[in-house]
Amino acid sequence: MAVAEHPFTGTFVADRNHSSALFSVVHMKVSRFRASFADVDARLAADEDGVFLEGRARVDSISIADPPELRDHVVLGQDFFDAGEHPEIRFRSRRLNFGDDGAIRVAGELELRGITRPIEASGTYRLPVTDPYGANRGAIELAATIDRREWGFDWQIPLPDGDDVLDWEVELDVRLELVQEG
């Protein structure tokens, strides 16, 4: 990937109505369980040290609604997000590589449940365009796969054949529509 200069000039923030953070995990070895977070925020900017991307999602904004006991177990339970102690998922990076071809690679730190680990993601970016209202909008879409055990998500139940109910690998999908400030 030929590396492009940082293509976003100024500070961009996530349009919260057009940005999303999703995850999926194989459930019962037969299907992929998906959920998302409605309350997502992000900032892409440059300072004297270079370009940075920071983001967060509120755990209690997860899309799981029913049954309530599943939502409470996932959101509040210590087996999963433990939102009472750790209400936000956070990400930060100072290592963004923008390719000439619209590809992007990002290396940063993901914080879940108060545990911070390195993570790498790849995807695409779209250069800013002016919308009908005069704002400059661009986009970054990133995907990564993590092992949930590295962040303390150790909950598991064995199936009758001895395999696991939930896969250990979780796919992350973040789509940010970014609006230039000012």
Question: Could you please describe the fold and organization of this structure?
Answer:
The structure is a single chain. The protein is built from 1 helix and 11 strands, in the order ββββββαβββββ. With 182 residues, it is mainly β. The protein has one domain: Beta Barrel (Lipocalin). A hairpin with a 5-residue loop joins strand 9 and strand 10.
How do the helices and strands follow one another from N- to C-terminus? EEEEEEHEEEEE
Q: How many domains?
A: 1
**Proportion of residues in β-strands:** over 45%
Shape: elongated
- Radius of gyration, in Å, reads 18 Å
Estimate the mean pLDDT confidence: 94
Q: Mind sketching the topology for me?
A:
Layout: E1 3-4, E2 12-14, E3 20-27, E4 31-37, E5 40-47, E6 50-58, H1 68-76, E7 88-99, E8 103-112, E9 115-130, E10 136-147, E11 169-180
Antiparallel strand pairs: 1-7, 2-5, 2-11, 3-4, 3-11, 5-6, 6-7, 7-8, 8-9, 9-10, 10-11
In short:
The chain is mainly beta and 182 residues long. The chain is built from one helix and eleven strands, in the order ββββββαβββββ. A hairpin with a 3-residue loop joins β3 (20-27) and β4 (31-37).
Keywords for this entry:
single chain; 182 residues; mainly beta; Lipocalin; eight-stranded antiparallel barrel; 1 helix; 11 strands; elongated
